[in-house]
Amino acid sequence: SDWRAGRFPRLALSSPSASQSGGSPSATGFKGTLSVPDLKLDDERRLFYVALTRARKMAYISYALQSYDERERTPSQFIAEIKPEFKKAGSVELYEQIFDQQKDFLYRPKTSKGFSIFEKEYLQSLFRKRGLSATAVNNFLSCPWRYFYSNLLRIPRAKSRHQIYGSAIHAGLKDFFDEVNRGEASKETLFAGFKNLLEKESLSENDLKTFLAKGESSLKKYFDYYNGNWRSKTQNEFRVNNVFLNDKIKLTGSLDKIEYLDFDSVNVVDYKTGKVVSRNELEGKTKDATGDYKRQLVFYKLLLGSLSAVKLNMVSGELDFIEPDKKGIFHKEKFLIDTSEVDELKHTILTIADNIMNFKFENERCGDRDCEYCQLRFKVI
Q1: pTM for this structure?
Q2: 222-238 per-position pLDDT tens digit
Q3: Could you tell me if 265 and 373 lie in one domain?
Q4: SS3 string of the chain?
Q5: Which domain holds residue 19?
């Protein structure tokens, strides 16, 4: 949940020269441009932006003028990048007085508050509320702690540049196929929806320019490649929130596109903005493949088959790659999902749910020595 007022202390730099880099798009309330791409700095800027947007009313930002060894500290460049109309400098004297009066309280030994995020009852309650999505299932199979922090606790984190790009592509496709349903499809709509969302995101001007050019090229080629072969009856961004497996396990999902083939038979399409992947890799048949993409389609069949309000017979699932391959050819991979695959996934979900409800993965590691989620579990907490 968001706070009415957020506090962000110690936003200072140890090196004054580090504050000379650029800024972010004006849509976020920041100013400046990045003259040289600095991905680490840009990621930190987006994280700072995410932190600020947690506060509903206002955010308090503070920093020290000197370090412990009395060297001068410079405010984080992100503070300077905020437009003047969005910030107001204030005196810290009152806060210093309050701090002096509360030193004994603030520096008292830390005691247990009687609550832990690892308490089984809390996790069970959270799991019943969240349920499982296709992404959550794949994340758990990859690393239980990845699921724990990303899907169960949902720790806020800045979207990566490529996640932002992918979301914008999806927005353009939704607007476009909504228009196809009305018989008004145009190349301009396809790009406009993408552009509108991308310009609202927290991107450096260099990234914005790069992604606009990349998206325009890919989407216009996509339009030309498939023009005249659009299905005219679809549902786009179809959300399912309250279906249950065995009346116990909540399942949720957001389907990019449902194509109606006849009265109740449908083909479910999932867009992919990454590089084209071979069919064997999609099915998890190559050496390092996980089978996540195919499992996602099987999950959608389970999801639609569990709906009570409407009956949709998903006869196939399709992965639609929005970027062409090196030869300029676009690819779609369609899979017929049979009952045995759905039954196998049901068993997997029941096993995952049992692991979560009984916190059986409490002391497990995923096997990746560099896994950030395992490190967060076993080294930080």
Answers
A1: 0.72
A2: 999 999 999 989 999 99
A3: yes
A4: CCEEEEEECCCEECCHHHHHCCCCCHHHCECCCCCCCCHHHHHHHHHHHHHHCCEEEEEEECCCCECCCCCECEECHHHHHECHHHCCCCCCHHHHHHHHHCHHHHCCCCCCCCCCCCCHHHHHHHHHHHCECHHHHHHHHHCHHHHHHHHHCCCCCCCCHHHHHHHHHHHHHHHHHHHHHCCCCCHHHHHHHHHHHHCCCCCCHHHHHHHHHHHHHHHHHHHHHHCCCCCCCEEEEEEEEEEEECCCEEEEEEEEEEEECCCCEEEEEEEECCCCCCHHHHCCCCCCCCCHHHHHHHHHHHHHHCCCCCCCEEEEEEEEECCCCCCCCCCEEEECCCHHHHHHHHHHHHHHHHHHHCCCCCCCCCCCCCCHHHHHHHHHC
A5: 3-106
